[in-house]
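Structure (tokenized):
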């Protein structure tokens, strides 16, 4: 499952198999895009995906994009994860500062 698109072709029951999807996102965070919707709301699974690939936050359930602790952990790992955070968090000074410390380019994703 190193190719995240491999999960796209899996049968629906497999996309909902937490253990299988967890292994897929450990190898490629982008696999979260193809996970069943309930798994996109699984905090542990989303965190694993985001730490592997910050862009995976784009596929997380909306409440997790607004989860300050999860997003803070993500931006500490890769500041560019800020672009996929909820708007409220893009205005959070501490969170934006952490993101910019990790990657100066993250500043363009902060609230205006």
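Design, position by position:
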């Amino acid at each position: 499952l190193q190719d995240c698109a491999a999960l796209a072709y899996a049968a629906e029951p497999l996309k909902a198999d937490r253990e299988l999807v967890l292994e897929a996102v450990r190898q490629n965070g982008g696999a979260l895009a193809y996970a069943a919707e309930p798994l996109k709301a699984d905090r542990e699974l989303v965190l694993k995906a985001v730490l592997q690939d910050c862009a995976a936050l784009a596929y997380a359930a909306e409440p997790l994009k607004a989860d300050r602790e999860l997003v803070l952990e993500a931006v500490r790992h890769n500041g560019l994860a800020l672009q996929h955070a909820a708007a409220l968090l893009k205005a959070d000074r501490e969170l934006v500062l952490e993101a910019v410390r990790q990657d100066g380019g993250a500043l363009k994703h902060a609230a205006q």
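Reviewer-requested clarification: Residues 2 and 76 are 24 Å apart (CA to CA). The longest helix spans residues 18-27.
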